[in-house]
Amino acid sequence: MKKAARHARIRDIIGRQAIETQDELAEALRQMHIDVTQATVSRDIKELMLIKVPIGDGRYRYAYPASKDALFSNKRMERLFQDSVTGMDFSENIIVVKTLPGTANAVASALDHAGWPDILGTVAGDDSILVVVKPKEAAGTVMKKLEALTMAL
């Protein structure tokens, strides 16, 4: 199945049901006879810019942001970091950001779209993110900016 068709099915699925994890989304696609891997679902979530929104009882589901401006606002990034990030550390030009399970993709997407010139890109798993920084001398500065997001109020 072509990516555009798969993305249309994903939009339909998250519009009709509360999908809380990548595994649940992959299973919903498989029930529609669409064979996907976790890596494909992860990329699709990032490309579709899906976010996690609270549904109560400490649970979150995938959804679309209300607007693109809301997705990339500094306030949203601060809230996202405060609600999701559990720790960070760096070595050389790599920063590792630890998050609550299921929230790494949203945090990584926000970083990718923040337009910070020292961040080349991110790779997100379920609860951790690798942030690649260039030049490596900028890693400490980027780390301080990320820490500021977790403490801003």
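^ that was protein a. below is b, sequence first then the tokens
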Amino acid sequence: MAELSILMVADVSPLDPYGGASRVLREQSRGLRGRGHRVEVLCRSAGPLTPATADMDGVPVRHYDVNRAHPVAFFVSSILGARRAYARSLSERRWDAVLFSQPLSAVGLCRRLPSATPAVYVFFSPAAAEYRIRAAHADSFHPRLGVGVACALLRWAEAASLRRARRVIVLSDFSRRQLLGLHGPLAASIVKIPGGADLERFRPAADRATARGRLGLPAEGLLLFTVRNLEPRMGLDALIHAVAEVRKDLDVRLVIGGQGRLRASLESLVDTLGLGGVVSFAGLIPEADLASFYQAADCFVLPTRSLEGFGLVTVEALACGTPVLGTPVGATPEILAPLAPELLTDDASPEALARGIRRAAPLLGDAAFRARCRAHADRHYGWPLAVARLEELLLELVPPSEL
């Protein structure tokens, strides 16, 4: 197998354990390094505590700083920061391939890369749509007057990055449809490589009762778990309303992991509905504890309202043998329908979520069904499979004379 020299460029850091894009970047880069390739990551700093350079299991990671005073300054400095960092330390090296994740750092390098260097763009979801949703509730970093300008800049950067790419990777058919709907036919070929789960780390517990006890979770009753950014599009308010309905005839508990701006309002909703002993907030769950929460739960619930480009948490929960009840939004049906269509709710409303929980309840304690969940993850969503597909794609782009 030929050894490739691969530069991975991103708007997120692989050292951030919580973002989906950062986790994909981490697994791709470490996986390619594990398959014998020389890999380096150039990415935007996650904040003032991020080291300028780091070693991630043999993968050098270089961070560049940005101006976070205002969205437009942030975007422009993201582009220029990537360009300067590349020119300063990476431009003299020969790269067999460059992998772009997200548009700002990508467009910073587009005109600096030699034209013969093949580029691949990883499309998670439309950057402008993601930003507009995050900015819907204005705060100090998302002033409403700047949203239109920021979205226009993101659309331009994404389009320019896609034009430079010879291949575009999507994680789902849903993302492929979004990509084509927004940017139309592309010169580059589109390749679907789904996300994955670490099948060694995320695996069924030997004893789920022990897992619950270790986390201080209730030993009895139907235990639902979700971990999300506490943001409007995640549908957590609908899930809380659904639990209020379901508890009329089921002994149910819900644990919500994650952090975000809706924490206070969600806690207030729990109090208003009288769910203080039923719904609890776990806060930011350390990466080392995440598998234990999946393992302890009877069911993982994904109540998303919009833009679920893939859903790493879905396949991680399945890898732990934990059934996932999800809304028919984004890529979730692609993952769950082949396993069990009854794991999909009718829509994202509280009523549909409540019906889904009741419908799925008889399956959740079935050992054979939980084994099917694990087998589904084994068959389709291990990271080694995803990285092998990525490696094959990269090797196709490099002329035989250069291998």
